[in-house]
Amino acid sequence: MSTLRIQAYPALTELMKLLFDLFPVALFVIAYFLTDIFIATGILILATMIQVAWLKIRDGSVPRIHLVTLGLLLFFGGLTIVLQDPLFIKWKPTIVNWLFAAGFLVVPLFGGKTLPERMMGSNIALEAEQWKRLNLAWILFFILLGILNLAVAFNFSEAIWVNFKLFGLMGLTVLFALGQGFYIVRHTQDPVD
Fold first, then answer.
1. Which among 10, 137, 183, 184 counts the fewest CB atoms within 10 Å?
2. Is this prediction's pTM over 0.85?
3. Is residue 72 within 8 Å of residue 146, measured between CB atoms?
4. 130-146, pLDDT tens digit by residue?
5. How would you label 144-173 residue by residue, b for 16+ Cβ within 10 Å and e otherwise?
6. Is the CA virtual torsion 161, 166, 167, 171 positive or negative?
7. With 0-12 CB in 10 A as exposed, 13-18 as middle and 19+ as buried, what is 114?
8. Smallest Cα–Cα separation from 52: which of 43, 44, 62?
9. How far is Cα of residue 37 from the mean position of the Cα atoms in its chain?
C-alpha cells in the first residue's frame, strides 16, 4: 500500500502507527510463551532497538518518547537478563507511566500550555480550564496505570502479567483515550461565551 493511499485514510494511518508501536511488546509476549521471560526480554530489547533504528532511518530523527523507552528498557531489561530476575522488567511499565505523568505535570511550567494543548491545540478549541482538566486526567491515568501494573505484577502469575502488559495496559489506554475524545467533542460543540 503506498504512502499516499495510507495518508488518505487517517484511521488506517493511526492503526499502522499503533501496530508499529506495539510490535516489540507483541514479540515479547509471543517469545515469553514460547521460551521464558529472559529470552523474551532480550527479544523485546532487540525489537525496540530495531524500531528506534527504523524511525531514525525513515524520519531522520526519533521521538523522545521512543528514546526514553529504549533507555529504560536497556536498563531494566539488562538488569533482568544479567541478574536473571524478572522483577526489573516488571517495574519498567510503571516507571514509564510515571515518567509520562511527570511530563504532563512539568510541561505547563515551561510556557504555560499543557501537553494536550501543545499536541492538539492547533486543531481543537478548548478553554484553558478544559485543557487543564484533560492534562490532570492524563496525569492521574498514568499514575494509576503504574500502580495497576505493580498490582498485577506482584499479585498474579507472571503469565497473567505478561498478557496484562500487552492487552490490559493497551486496552485501558485506548478506552481512556476514547473517553478523552468524548470529553473534547462535548466541549468543542458548546459555544464559548
1. 10
2. no
3. no
4. 888 888 999 999 999 99
5. ebbebbeebbeeeeeeebbbbbbebbbeee
6. positive
7. buried
8. 62
9. 21
